[in-house]
Amino acid sequence: MSALNLAAALLLSPFLLGVITRVKARFAGRRGAPLLQPYHDLLKLFRKGSVFSRTTTWVFRAGPVVGLGTAALAALLVPMGGRAAFAFEGDVFLFAYLLALGRFFTIAAAMDTGSAFEGMGAAREATWSALAEPALFLSLLVLARFSGSLSLSDMLGPGLAAQWKTSGASLVLVVAALFVVLLAENSRIPVDDPTTHLELTMIHEVMVLDHGGPALGMILSGAAAKLFVLGALVAHLVAPIGAGGLLLGWAVFLGAQLAIAVAIGVVESVMARLRLAQVPSLLVAACLLSAFAVVLVAR
Amino acid sequence: MLLLSLCLLLLLGSAALALALAAARSPAAAQVTATAGAVIACALGFVPVVRSLAGAPPESMELPWAAPLGPIHLGLDPLSAFFLAPLLVLGALAAVYGRAYLAHARGPGSPAIAGATLNALLASMVVVVVARGALVFLVAWEAMTLTSYLLVVFDHHEEDVRRAGWVYLIAAHVGVACLLAFFLMLEPSGGAGGLDFDQLAAGARTLAPGALFTATLLAGIGFGVKAGVVPLHVWLPEAHAAAPSHVSALMSGVLVKLGLYGLLRAGLLLQPPSAWGHALLALGVGGALLGILLALQQRDLKRVLAYSTVENVGIVLIGLGLCTWARGHGHPEAAALALAGALLHVWNHAAMKGLMFLCAGGVVHQVGTRDLEKMGGLLRRMPATGMMALLGAAALSALPPLNGFTGELLLYLGLGKVALAAPGWTGAAAALGIGALALVGGLAALTFLRLAGIAFLGEPRSAEASRATEPSNWMTWPMVALTAALVLGGIGPGTVARALWPAAAQVLGPELATAEPPAGLHAVGGAALAIWLTVALLWLLLRVLARGAPQLVGTWDCGYAEPTPRMQYTARSFSEHLLSRLLPPWLRPSTHRPSLAGRPFPAPARFSTESEDPVTRRAYRPFLASGAERVSRIRWMQQGLLPVYVVYILATVVLALGWLSIRQWIQP
Q: Residues 6 or more apart from A270 whose CB is under 8 A from it?
């Protein structure tokens, strides 16, 4: 079970990146890169040599390593098509803080280069993620309140389908808040533009400017796994599986993940990136949505 | 109790011997005496502490004393042992570190006398924790304040340090005045007049509700000042920044926590109604948020750490408040989780903040400034200190696999239990409390990335920083010990929680004490191990993939050919967005802009920002300024002549005796 989850998060996740790129290309009227292009990119990066800045220390290498490692471990705590590989009371907090650990070292690695641009990206990422944190916690708490448990596997378990019928309103709020968190945490439009050519406007991409070769490969792979893991939360939420075997569960789960990737692609195609000063408003709005959902549920 | 008495005697004896040696002009011998005395005494004292935490029955000891308020009563129960454990460990480490740290002190302060004072401080803190009577408690409390004041003003040739010392002394005495009133209120009326805690507890039960409210408030203020509870925290950042770093570590790790010990002890005496839980919760959330937002603004390395102590005390208060509330509303499980989380966080914070202040001391020692903007690149120059500081920063951001996460996990679980079960707005309030704690965690990560990133990563921003080297081994080893505590506390939180369970059981009372540490804690310990293993594995993988030595070049910096260290992001710019755009104006640092208009020719101009505590600026300063006016009218009482002061004391005693005899005459 754990091997399956891990393999899905690490091996299937680059495909989602390919899907997003393809959707965006179609919206722009192009044919777009092959769906498997991210795999080629990763293989190419892993075959390259390493170039490091003279300023850097072990922290620079710890960024990619911890980022990928925490995303992989988080994959073991998230239910995928059934219960998670590991579930216990309170795993939801460990899940959130695992992602925070990965972010901590990604940011530290950026600051390790001493580059002004990377310092800028680091400051922005640290600020935005502090604001996104309450939104993530509060929306998960709504689910916890429904299931009466603080374990992700119960929160996203079979009971969710019935909840949609009785308290759809608060679940819609939760989906909206979690989707904003998903976009923000994965550096997507409207918070960040992964394809921009101007370093001044970047957040995540500018933090990894100095990374190359296998280290950059690990960063890409970790980012993809993070997208998959956070996407899994939303996937279970929008496509709850009442009962059914493992096969059906996985089919529904992967279908929902694909749908989320398409949705991200659509959002990226039809929206412009927000001005930096407006990003906090979006994140605070997500916090308020989830807080509203909490109040609705606890009423 | 025998070993603990030996520990006390050894601390005081070595302090006296060190003072004598210092007076005999052999400072080196005095320092060694003080340090050795502290280490041996702490080791001796640790034995009964471990025994008590392992479940040994409480011990107590009475020494006859001719004072009117009964014998000296000392005791060791799990709650005392819980606070003694970090006190003795951090005390020994600080003593070892301090000897090396002060060896090159440039000011007029004498390192030998500082060593002796440190031992006296340790002794008074031990007595505070084991005192079982109000009189001994208050005397030790005052001794603790005075000895720590002497250590805070070690660098008294600097004006800032003297000022910080004054603020500390005044705040501490406001607190002790409240405590004096608190203990006297509890004195059982018409009884034997004893001030033993048992008698005080009996006295508290006879108090009218109004008097009980006043007593609780007085205890809250008196202990809250020491604990740095917002808005009584203003002395804390001043004193922590001014003190020598090992003293800051001891104050932040232990002395401030004794305020929390006082709150817990007072809670046992008063058994306050659960409505106080709301007040504690609100103070906790407010303090945690304010503390971390102010920490984010500081340029001074040690002030960042000091304000983070205010934040962490807030986090502990959230746990205490939730516990008080939950036990009165039929959520025993949540109460146990919240209390265990608060206590676990006390231990964790002692290790984390102790480590960070010791690291900061190493940096200050080498770079010669506390200004973050003059540091940078220290990780390459001080690899061991830098690595430990980075781990400490991650732990203070409550990140697994380190110990900082474990206490907060229990708090999250406690809040979560209430959020899931409680109906109506209570559940919503607990849920929003989780949101607030998450926000504090995110802001803490921002704060400590700023601290570690600006000080230790990148290129040095000053010549002093580029010349820094690792401090001496005597300073490094205490840090290594604390780092080990961070790592092991992260891997084995279940074991740590079991060690503090007797203390939690004592506070909760026998009816709630059956709960065991939750299974989630063990799972998190396993997860910590998994994180370390995964990281090690991927590190090897990166090594293998890299195939040979990497090519070394300059930082790319978007093709700019001549980067200078001044182009790096600064501490100010790192937190700029949050501070200047998202905070309400009264929380922002104030800026002083030069006025350039109306000048025909360019002239030198200075732009500066200053982060002053908003509570000082908005509340205390206006209040104290108007008070100072009035107080200056009795200035004539201050004569500076010893005989005059003796007359004051005599007059006070005569008046007090007169009042007593009049009272006996009225109601025989």
A: A27
